[in-house]
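= Paired protein data =
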Amino acid sequence: MALQDLTDDIADLEKKLSQIEAVLDPESKKAEIADLEQQVAAPNLWDDQANAQRVTSRLSRLQSDIERLTGLHARLDDAATLVEMAREESDAETAAEAESEVARLRTEIEGLEVRTLLSGEYDERDAVVSIRSGAGGVDAADFAEMLLRMYLRWAERHGYATKVMDTSYAEEAGLKSVTFEVSAPFAYGTLSVEGGTHRLVRISPFDNQGRRQTSFAAVEVIPLIEDTDHIDVPESDIRVDVFRSSGPGGQSVNTTDSAVRITHLPTGLVVSMQDEKSQIQNRAAAMRVLQSRLLLLKKQEEDAKKKELAGDVKASWGDQMRSYVLNPYQMVKDLRTNYEVGNPDAVFDGDIDGFIDAGIRWRMQSHED
């Protein structure tokens, strides 16, 4: 790439970063940081542990945001210096180093730009993701396990904490269902575009005749409830069943009835939990996920009512949102955004940021239309 092109790219990225800052408003964040630092310094902060956790978490997140913006500005300045050095000394190695850094900066700044589109009520929350195998028998159960690995690898790439909360194994291979939590800033807003039906087309490894098989798995993403949310669930509205946790093949993994299944009678929502050590802990975790689902259901009902009042009859996007094709050709394609790649192995290894970014941009465009 010509040095002038690199200079133009750096100027373009500086302009884009300034536009992002206009949305993120770093000065207001700095003012909030100062206020939160005063709260953290208070000697009685941990008298209320829930509030202390909220304050320290928010402070850490805001400080990280400011450090990221400051760091990007510094790196853009350094990249411009590298370009000047390469120009003055006609140094091809320095020019190549500058080109690599500009490419990395473009990826990071475009990722930050996408995050400015996450302005939903619950977008900042942690996420609870559930995957259920659909039509396709053992291939669908195997596909559900492939998707679990994909999301866990994606989180690992970004340094996000994950916790598998409940797993229901299929008899032959794979998973009937799994629920896991992703703890990261904007985890829900980021992963919410992954919700829907995923489709896999491949030569089935479980078919001794080597036939092509199409299978399906459903992905659900909900925001994790916080202490400040008010979702009242009367005891009379739930049924609680206890059972023994099971592993692959159905074998029991403990000797006590510690796993918990809660059924919300008015809606029919069912939540199972078997990750924790005791029945009490599993019940508390299951109630938290149930409340999260009820919170999202309440918001969806409110949104539907608003659309009805506004006369908006436009259908929402279809359930089947992504195809993973391994045979007769190799491709993963999002059916809403038309974003596609020709390397399914990389996608199943967690390389899904392109799909997520395209989904967030598509959703924002859909809301504006």
